[in-house]
Automatic annotation (TrEMBL):
Pfam family, one: 2-Hacid_dh_C
Coiled-coil ranges (or none): none
GO molecular function, one term: phosphoglycerate dehydrogenase activity
Role: Catalyzes the reversible oxidation of 3-phospho-D-glycerate to 3-phosphonooxypyruvate, the first step of the phosphorylated L-serine biosynthesis pathway. Also catalyzes the reversible oxidation of 2-hydroxyglutarate to 2-oxoglutarate.
Gene3D superfamilies attached to this UniProt entry: 3.30.70.260, NAD(P)-binding Rossmann-like Domain
Reactions it catalyzes: (2R)-3-phosphoglycerate + NAD(+) = 3-phosphooxypyruvate + NADH + H(+); (R)-2-hydroxyglutarate + NAD(+) = 2-oxoglutarate + NADH + H(+)
InterPro entries noted in UniProt: ACT-like_dom_sf, ACT_dom, D-2-hydroxyacid_DH, D-isomer_2_OHA_DH_cat_dom, D-isomer_DH_CS, D-isomer_DH_CS1, D-isomer_DH_NAD-bd, NAD(P)-bd_dom_sf
UniProt keyword list: Amino-acid biosynthesis, NAD, Oxidoreductase, Phosphoprotein, Serine biosynthesis
Protein name stated in the entry: 2-oxoglutarate reductase
Length: 472
């Protein structure tokens, strides 16, 4: 997305002031020196007058971005195309290295491995926004981020189809014991068997979590002649002939194949454990491509050894490694050897969303959301801040600015903000809240360069302030 046009007047720059304190008068953390130099740099590099090619609302070269976990080229191209400084790493980082790197950046892009905990985020004094180039956002402390004015974006469904297709492959593979037969052939053994190998036609698929992935899977499974039942905490419209069941237990009792598509939450931890395996049909199958915490793996091992569960496919695990290489060797998980020794179990390294199509689409979607947020302050699609959008800033008219004020959702803030903006013409103003956090955007005209600092300082002085940005 193009950044707004440069304005033909003495240069102004983007200004951001990022508070980690409830009251700016008594900050818990002083703004780091690098933040000051970012602002100074913006002023210093900005030419006094615009030329036709200068399309940025501020000096985008000052924005530092760290991309981890091999974010797709499509996303990298969009971000570098904006002129931001982009550092790209193929892997995630150990916590100590992450803390060192995150101190310096305005934007971080991650996938499912990088844990952005409060401990890590509290070091991120310049951070404006986090891009999760994946669906799940459980790896980020969303609440901490919101309380500190850090927006989080993800790609809510660009890899849903890829996960659904993987699960279809696994249903058939488990029913036909394909993993075992292939392994035997690789080892030189011809083992032609039909006992306990089944067609999937006419069997019942139980989908736990009927969201983007679950509902997509439902359509594909019905096309293969399966009956579909699903359980979800929400009442959701069935697609095709699928049928919602009122409890997880009911689903477990009916399904030949149980597949999990819930997010990682405290409620979904060990959602499938000893009691749930006991409820499942004899000889049924379990598939988990959601999060490693959702299945109690030692309980699965027991259920498979007893023959209760005839096969399983696991794409996700507790303690997934930061990079490709050894996992089970020296694994922290005591069950690793037992799991590897089971028959008819498909183990994959979290590849549900790993297709060219999904990764390209995610790269574009998340990078565009980041650009919209950095350049325009638009929070559309944010998972932790109120979603506020206004027309793209073109700034063709002189003396125009966009004020963004992220604040605690307490009474009386709008009045105070409007007192500060009252000197100027407010063209448009939008404010929305989500829980304790509110997000206000105002486009004002009739502002001079010297007004900007005054507006920002006055907003910063309000006790409700979390973060102030002025784009112009
Ligand atoms: N293996 C992989 O590579 C991938 C894994 N995932 C995982 O799959 C999960 C699901 O993805 P989507 O379908 O896109 O999410 P979604 O948000 O569209 O759907 C999740 C559904 O689970 C339901 N749910 C939440 N808690 C529940 C509970 N305790 N019991 C029953 N239902 C519950 C929700 O109401 C919702 O309908 C993601 O959160 C992510 O963790 C996502 C993409 C790729
Ligand atoms: O999109 C998700 O939530 C996934 O689990 C996929 O994660 P990944 O991008 O492969 O690290």
């Amino acid at each position: 997305m193009a950044a707004p046009r440069e304005i033909s007047r003495p240069a102004l720059s983007e200004a951001v002031s990022h508070s980690l304190s409830a009251s700016p008068a008594a900050p818990l953390h002083s703004p780091p020196a690098s933040q000051g130099s970012f602002l100074a740099g913006s002023f210093a590099h900005r030419p006094a007058t615009a030329t036709a090619k200068q399309l940025k609302p501020f000096n985008t070269g000052d924005i530092k971005i760290l991309l981890l976990e091999n974010v797709n080229q499509t996303g990298r191209d969009i971000l570098t195309g904006q002129g931001y400084q982009v550092e790209f790493l193929k892997t995630s980082l150990p916590e100590d290295e992450l803390i060192e790197k995150i101190k310096d950046v305005h934007v971080i892009g991650i996938r499912s491995k990088t844990k952005l905990t409060a401990k890590v985020l509290q070091e991120a004094k310049n951070l404006l926004v986090i891009g999760c180039f994946c669906i799940g956002t459980n790896q980020v402390d969303l609440e901490y981020a919101a309380r500190h004015g850090i927006a989080v974006f993800n790609s809510p469904f660009a890899n849903s189809r890829s996960v659904a297709e993987l699960v279809i492959a696994e249903i058939i593979s488990l029913a036909r014991q394909l993993g075992d037969r292939s392994l035997e052939m690789h080892r030189g053994t011809w083992n032609k068997v039909s006992a306990k190998c089944w067609e999937v036609r006419g069997k019942t698929l139980g989908i736990v979590g009927y969201g983007h992935i679950g509902s997509q899977l439902s359509v594909l499974a019905e096309a293969m002649g399966m009956s579909v039942v699903y359980y979800d905490v929400l009442t959701l419209m069935a697609i095709g002939s699928a049928r919602q069941v009122p409890t997880l237990d009911k689903l477990l009792e009916e399904a030949d194949f149980v597949t999990l598509h819930v997010p990682e939450t405290p409620e979904t931890k060990n959602l499938i454990s000893t009691e749930q395996f006991a409820r499942m049909k004899n000889g049924s199958y379990l598939i988990n491509a959601s999060r490693g915490t959702v299945v109690d793996i030692p309980a699965l091992i027991k259920a498979m050894r007893s023959g209760k569960i005839a096969g399983a496919a696991l794409d996700v695990f507790p303690n997934e490694p930061a990079a490709n290489g050894d996992y089970f060797v020296n694994s922290l998980n005591s069950w690793a050897e037992d799991l590897r020794g089971l028959n008819n179990i498909i183990l994959t390294p979290h590849i549900g969303g790993s297709t060219e199509e999904a990764q390209r689409a995610i790269g574009v979607e998340v990078a565009e959301a980041l650009v919209r947020y950095i350049n325009q302050g638009i929070t559309l699609g944010s998972v932790n801040l109120p979603e506020v959008t206004m027309r793209s800033l073109t700034l063709e008219e002189p003396n125009h600015a966009r004020v963004i004020y992220i604040h605690r959702n307490v009474p009386g803030v709008l009045r105070k903000v409007n007192e500060i903006l009252a000197e100027h013409n407010v063209d448009k103003q939008i404010s929305d809240s989500k829980g304790d956090i509110a997000y206000l955007m105002a486009d004002i005209s009739d502002v001079k360069t010297e007004d900007i600092k005054e507006i920002r300082d006055s907003l910063d002085a309000l006790s409700s302030r979390i973060m102030t940005r002025v784009l112009y």
